[in-house]
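Course assignment 3, question 2. Fill in each field.
Student: A.L.
Task: Predict the tertiary structure for the chain below.
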Amino acid sequence: MSVAALIVAAGRGVRAATESGQPKQYGRLGGEAMLTRTIRAFASHAGIDAVLVAIHPDDADLYAAASKAFAGRLLAPVMGGARRQDSVRAGLEALELHGPDVVLIHDAARPFADDALIARVIGGVGEARAPCPVCRPIRSVAAGGRVTGTVGREDLWRAQTPQGFKFDAILAAHRAAAQDPTLDFTDDTSVAEWFGLDVALVEGSEHNRKLTTAEDLAIADEMLRTEEKRAATSIRVGTGYDVHALGPGDAVILCGVSIPHTKKLVGHSDADVGLHALTDALLGTIADGDIGVHFPPSDERWRGAASDLFLKVAGDKIRARGGEIMHVDVTLLCEAPRIGPYRDAMRACMAETLGIDVGRVSIKATTNEGLGFVGRGEGIAAMATATVKLP
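Answer field:
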């Protein structure tokens, strides 16, 4: 079964004229013409064998620019007529030379038809069936700008395109309708129903909305730009772990805060296990080695150094790549000292060092239930997780 798509793009779209005065189907959505997006939906679909576009005679140059990316995959455009049904009939007459079994007729002003919707319409075409995608209508009806009542929705639907047909049947229907100039149909299933074809309903899509007004275009454009920015963003998660032994002393430094204690952490720098683990986690999000690569213990420059220096460098490296630190989480494993009284000071210190809101900093603590080197009070360990957004 061969399937053709006929895209109707011959209207003037006066309710959504662009700033340059171009018809709406050539207005920009997410940096490209609306018609480009509509064509792509069908030209890239595995179930579509041919695509033809009906355009206005004045839009040849605009169409050439909008369809350039699909050169070689589209049939030559056909010039549309004064009414939508005239444009559709012109397109069907042109398609007859290619002999498709099925045709899907679609409005250019619906650029968000997806693969699943197109497949449902193709699958709904039968010997005497013309599938029309539909969605439920709004609840209330109005007259003169005022709500006049609520209509039961069981038998009411909002029709969408693409609408699918056996090619010979819909061509015959349009030819018959053209014999009476007083007949004016809003869509092709209306023509089919008038001609006696059986119209069936298939599930539509709320995303497949028709862009009618200038506000519709502006909203769709903003939506697409937001989605594309989100799609162009990579979320990275890095983890870190560090441990230092406890030795003679009177304070430990954890997450940038000095805490009175009967011992101190032993290390080349200030031995802040919390910041060391977090530094490794941050470096992990950009695949840039670990703390030992950038600040080797063999380098005397780092003897006794405050570990917030290491953390700041890791944060700066992320920002240098256009990244944003979304969240950091450190878990301290120790029997003593108690972490709770110092938690807020630790969060504030880390937030300031990284230049992020303190609401993005989490610190937790747990004991080791007396087990292992942590449980025996021989050392303190830390685990860290960092979440980073990168372009």
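Instructor remarks: Residues 242 and 273 are 5 Å apart (CA to CA). Residues 234-390 form a domain with the 60s Ribosomal Protein L30; Chain: A; fold (CATH 3.30.1330.50).
Grade: pending
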